[in-house]
Amino acid sequence: MENISFKRHFAKTVTWRLVGTLDTILLSWVITGNPFTGLKIGASEVITKMILYYFHERIWIHLGVPDSRRRHILKTITWRIIGTFDTILLSWFITGSVQTGLQIGGVEVVTKMILYYFHERAWYRINFGLEKRKRARK
Fold this sequence. Notes:
transmembrane
């Protein structure tokens, strides 16, 4: 079994949060028409999403699902459920509109799943924080 370090999970958490926050800011800005609302929503989720993402990574390392495209797809789906729920709640709270929260969350389901999948694939190719790796060719 791979020795996955804290440094690797932390680095993945930070890089994903950068990508995810930029996406949330842009989507929120476009949907609300207000760049400051986009910044508020994006900034507010930085902390909640980093915490949620870190624990998502820690849980997945213990599930025993072998590295493969299937694993990356399953991780994408489970993370998106958690992440979208968080975004909907934060957007609703910040804008005061359930509808706006649902709109932002609904659009982000698509953009974030695509971005997350490619983030996972990129990190699969990076050896940072790993002692040795046997890559599955699936």
